[in-house]
Write a structure and sequence with these properties.
This protein has 23 helices and 26 strands. The chain is globular, with a radius of gyration of 25 Å. β23 (605-609) and β24 form a beta hairpin. The chain is 29% helix and 17% strand. The N and C termini lie far apart (54 Å). α9 packs parallel to α14. By secondary structure, it is an alpha/beta fold. Residues 15, 144, 298 line the site of molybdenum atom (MO).
Length: 682
C-alpha cells in the first residue's frame, strides 16, 4: 500500500512582516516538504528562499538541532556540553535560582528575549515566569525599534495602529521610508507594492531592489532624513497642499513648526541630504496630493537621531491630513491590540510583586560585568552574542564563571556556547499557537505538524516545568496552550475555534480595511495629534521637531549600515549550509568609486575598525551603495566567520535620542586594507 499523504496548513512565525501561510506535506506520518500555501493571500504558494532552505533542511535535521538538555563541561564560550535528562537540568536551574532569589533578589536575574519565535504564546508566555520571580528584563525593543515607538506614541498616542495594507487600492502614493521590503518583507515587495495602483516612492540610502522597482527613489545620506522631511514640507506648503482644516481641528503644535519651513528649500535640502532638488519637488507633490500611505521602516530609526527623524517624517501625514481615511495613514508595526487581544493577558504582569526597571540592550554588557547586579542570565528567543551591541565586551561578560547562564534555542548558537545549561526548544512545526502579522490585519493558526524533535519542548512547556520545580503554585504559570489559544481566540471575537482557524490557516480580522483614527480622535492626552508632546521635552529633546542632521563621518571614515540580509532572519539561518552558500563570505559592500579611491577591488581583504572593535571582511562592489557608506549585513554567526565576530563587534552601543534604543545604523568605522596573504589568517 502506498504511504498516505497528509497536508497540514500552518503559519511562519518569524519576525517578518509577511507571516506567510505554509503547507506541510507529510508522507507516511513524516514531514517531507514545507512550502508556501497557494491559498494564502500573502504567500501565494511560495515561502521566501531563506525559509524554504532552512525549513527543509537544518530545522528538521536532528544532527543540526539541539535535541536534549545540556550541561556545560568545558570553558564558557567553547560550547562543550554533556546531555542530561530534563529533570536534572530543571533541578539544577531551580537549585541555583532559589538562593539567588533569597539572598540577592530577582532583579539580579537578567532575562533577555525577543522574537526568535513570534507566535503569540511562544513569544510571551515565558514572561509569566520571569514576572513571578521579579527578574530584570532586557527591554527587547531597545535592540530594534524602541525610539520609533516612543516618538510615534508621543505624537499619535499609538505606534501600533498603522494603515491596513488592503487600503493600498485607495492610495495614489505609497512612500516607503527607511525600510527594505525586498529583504524584510519579500512578499509585500513582490506582490503588495508591485500591484499597488498608486506611485511608489522609496527613501533609502541604498538602492535595494524595492528602491530599484519604485517610481521614484530618493537616496539621502544616512542620518539626514529630518532635513529631507522639512524640504518636502516646504514644497508641500508652497504648492498649497497643506490640509488646513485637519491641522486646525486635530493637531497641536503645527504653527510652531511653520517658521522653520521657510529656510528648508529644495536646494537647501539637496545640499544637506544629497537628494537632487528636482526629486524633492516631485516626491513632495506626489505625496502631498495623496491620498498617501507612509511606511516607516525600523531601519530608519536605528540612528542616533532616530526619534528626531520619526518626528520630522510624521509631519508629512499630519500636514497633508493623510490620516483617518481610506488610502491614507502611516504604518510602523500593527499591534495585536487592534485585533482585540489584551496585551496583558499572556505576559501576566500582575504576577510580579516587585518589578525591577528594565534595562536596555545598550547596557547589557555592562550589567553582566557586575557580579553584584547580575547573578544569573536567561536568554531565550534571542541570540545576544550575535545580535546585541558591544559584542566583544558582551562576550567577555558572558564568560564570567560565576554568571549562571541558561539559554534556550533550537540550535547551538554563539550565545548557547556560553550557557551553563542549554535547554532545547521545539520549533514552530512542533506545537500549536497563533500568529498575528505586524503588517496585515490577520489572525493565523500555527499548527503542530510533528512531535517536538528529540527531547525538545516548546518555550511555554519549559517554563511551566521550571515553575513546578520552583514550587510555585499560581495557576497562571501552568495554563495550558489549549486554554490560552481558546482565550486569545475569544478575545479576537472572530467566532472561530482553533480547529476552524487551523482549517482556514489565516483569516482577516475584519472583512474590509481597518481605518485607524477614523473618528479623528487620537489616543493622546489631548485627543489630538501632539507634535509638541511633553514627552519630547522630558526626553531632553527640543519642544518642536527640527530639521537637524547627524554630522557626516570624519575624514576617511565610513558610515556602516547593517540592515537585514535577504538570506538571514536576524541571526537565524546563519547556520544553514545552503543559506551560507548563497550569502557567500562575510563582505563589506562599497560603491566602486569609494573602493577605487582607497585602492581596493572586489575580493580584497580589509579590516573595518573603530573604538568598539574590528572585523575582517572581503570587499564587494556595487553602485547600489552610496560613496561614504559601508554595507555589512547583520545576522552572520560570529563563530562561523574569521575572527569569531560579526558586524556588532563595531557597534559601541551608542543610544538613539529616545528610549535607550539602538542606533546601530549610525556606526562609523575606518577601513584598513590587509595584504592578500593576511586573508587566510584564522
Ligand atoms: N548590526 C545590527 N544588529 C542588529 C540589527 C541591525 O539592524 N544591525 N537588528 C536588531 C534587530 S531589529 C533585532 S530584532 C535583533 C534580533 O536578533 P536575534 O536575537 O539574533 O533574532 P532571531 O534570529 O530572530 O532569533 C534569535 C534566536 O531565537 C531562536 N529561536 C527560534 N525559534 C525559537 C523558539 O521557538 N524558542 C527559542 N527559545 N528560540 C527560538 C533562533 O534559533 C535564534 O537563535 O537583532 C538586532 N541586531
Ligand atoms: N530577510 C530578513 N527579513 C527581516 C529581518 C532580517 O534580518 N532578514 N529582520 C526582521 C526584523 S527583526 C526587523 S526589525 C525588520 C527590519 O526591517 P526594515 O525596517 O526593512 O529594517 P532594516 O533592514 O534594518 O533597514 C531598512 C533600510 O533602512 C535603511 N536605512 C538605514 N539608515 C537609514 C537612514 O538614515 N535613512 C533612511 N532613509 N534609511 C536608512 C537601510 O539602508 C535599509 O535599506 O525586518 C524583519 N525582516
Ligand atoms: S520569513 Fe517572512 S517571507 Fe519568509 S516564509 Fe516567513 S513570513 Fe514568509
Ligand atoms: Mo527587529
Amino acid at each position: 500500500m502506498a504511504p498516505t499523504t497528509e497536508v497540514i496548513r500552518t503559519t511562519c512565525p518569524r519576525d517578518c512582516y509577511d507571516a506567510c501561510g505554509i503547507i506541510v506535506v507529510k508522507t507516511g506520518g513524516v514531514i517531507d516538504r514545507v512550502k508556501g500555501d497557494p491559498d494564502h493571500p500573502v504567500a501565494r504558494g511560495t515561502l521566501c528562499p531563506k525559509c524554504t532552505l532552512a525549513y527543509n533542511a537544518e530545522w528538521r535535521d536532528p544532527e543540526a538541532r539541539m535535541t536534549q538538555p545540556l550541561r556545560r563541561v568545558g570553558p564558557k564560550g567553547e560550547g562543550r556540553f554533556a546531555p542530561i535528562p530534563w529533570d536534572e537540568a530543571l533541578d539544577m536551574i531551580a537549585g541555583r535560582l532559589r538562593p539567588i532569589l533569597a539572598e540577592a533578589g530577582g532583579e539580579t536575574i537578567i532575562q533577555t528575549h525577543y522574537t526568535g519565535t513570534f507566535s503569540l504564546i511562544g513569544y510571551a508566555f515565558p514572561l509569566r515566569f520571569f514576572h513571578r520571580i521579579g527578574a530584570t528584563e532586557v527591554d527587547p525593543d531597545t535592540v530594534c525599534n524602541k525610539a520609533g515607538h516612543a516618538a510615534l506614541e508621543a505624537i499619535f498616542g499609538s505606534s501600533l495602529d498603522g494603515f491596513d495594507p488592503r487600503t493600498a487600492c485607495d492610495a495614489a502614493c505609497i512612500l516607503v521610508w527607511g525600510a527594505n521590503p525586498s529583504a524584510s518583507a519579500p512578499h509585500a515587495h513582490k506582490h503588495w507594492l508591485a500591484e499597488a495602483p498608486g506611485k511608489v516612492i522609496v527613501i533609502d540610502p541604498i538602492r535595494h531592489p524595492t528602491a530599484e522597482a519604485a517610481d521614484l527613489h530618493l537616496q539621502p545620506f544616512p542620518g539626514t532624513d529630518a532635513a529631507l522631511a522639512f524640504a518636502l514640507l516646504h514644497v508641500i506648503r508652497r504648492e498649497g497642499l497643506l490640509a488646513q482644516e485637519f491641522l486646525d481641528g486635530h493637531v497641536i503644535g503645527w504653527e510652531e513648526v511653520l517658521p522653520s519651513l521657510d529656510a528648508c528649500t529644495p536646494a537647501w535640502g539637496e545640499a544637506i541630504t544629497g537628494v537632487p532638488a528636482a526629486q524633492i519637488e516631485a516626491a513632495a507633490v506626489l505625496y502631498g496630493r495623496g491620498p498617501s500611505l507612509l511606511w516607516l521602516g525600523q531601519g530608519l530609526q536605528r540612528q542616533r537621531t532616530g526619534a528626531a527623524v520619526f518626528r520630522a517624517c510624521s509631519l508629512l501625514p499630519i500636514a497633508t491630513g493623510n490620516l483617518g481615511k481610506p488610502g491614507a495613514g502611516f504604518l510602523y508595526l500593527n499591534g495585536t491590540d487592534s485585533r482585540g487581544i489584551d496585551p496583558a493577558y499572556l505576559p501576566a504582569p500582575h504576577l510580579s510583586l516587585h518589578r525591577p526597571p528594565p534595562i536596555s540592550h545598550m547596557d547589557l554588557a555592562e550589567r553582566l560585568e557586575d557580579p553584584d547586579r547580575s547573578r544569573a542570565l536567561f536568554c531565550w528567543n534571542n541570540n545576544i552574542a550575535a545580535s546585541s551591541p558591544r559584542q566583544a565586551r558582551l562576550r567577555r561578560a558572558l564568560a564570567r564563571e560565576d554568571l549562571f547562564t541558561v539559554a534556550l534555542d533550537l540550535f547551538p548558537t554563539d550565545t548557547t556556547d556560553y550557557a551553563d545549561v542549554v535547554l532545547p526548544a521545539a520549533s514552530f512545526l512542533e506545537f500549536d499557537d497563533l500568529v498575528c502579522s505586524y503588517f496585515h490585519y490577520t489572525v493565523s493558526a500555527q499548527v503542530k505538524a510533528a512531535e517536538p524533535m528529540g527531547a525538545s519542548l516548546p518555550n511555554q512547556e519549559i517554563f511551566r516545568r521550571l515553575a513546578a520545580k520552583m514550587g510555585f503554585a499560581e495557576p497562571d504559570l501552568f495554563e495550558s496552550d489549549e486554554a490560552m489559544i481558546a482565550g486569545l481566540l475569544r478575545q479576537t471575537g472572530l467566532g472561530l475555534n482553533f480547529a476552524e482557524l487551523a482549517q482556514r490557516g489565516t483569516v482577516p480580522f475584519q472583512a474590509g480595511p481597518l481605518i485607524p483614527f477614523l473618528s479623528g480622535v487620537f489616543p493622546t492626552p489631548s485627543g489630538k495629534v501632539e507634535i509638541t508632546s511633553g514627552r519630547f521635552a522630558a526626553a531632553g529633546l527640543p519642544r518642536v521637531p527640527r530639521p537637524d542632521v547627524q554630522p557626516r563621518p570624519t575624514a576617511g571614515r565610513l558610515r556602516v549600515l547593517s540592515p537585514a540580509s535577504p538570506w538571514l532572519m536576524n541571526s537565524s539561518y546563519g547556520n544553514v549550509a545552503k543559506v551560507r552558500a548563497q550569502a557567500g563570505p562575510a563582505d563589506v559592500c562599497l560603491h566602486p568609486k569609494e573602493a577605487r579611491r582607497r585602492g581596493l577591488g572586489a575580493g580584497d581583504p580589509v579590516l573595518l575598525k573603530n573604538e568598539a572593535g574590528e572585523l575582517r571582511l572581503q570587499v564587494s562592489l556595487s553602485d547600489r551603495v552610496p560613496p561614504g557608506v559601508a554595507l555589512v549585513h547583520k545576522g552572520r554567526w560570529p563563530k562561523l566567520d574569521p575572527g569569531g565576530a560579526n558586524v556588532n563587534v563595531l557597534n559601541g552601543g551608542e543610544r538613539a535620542d529616545m528610549a535607550e534604543s539602538s542606533s546601530v545604523h549610525s556606526v562609523e568605522a575606518d577601513l584598513v586594507p590587509l595584504a592578500r596573504t593576511e586573508r587566510s589568517l584564522p
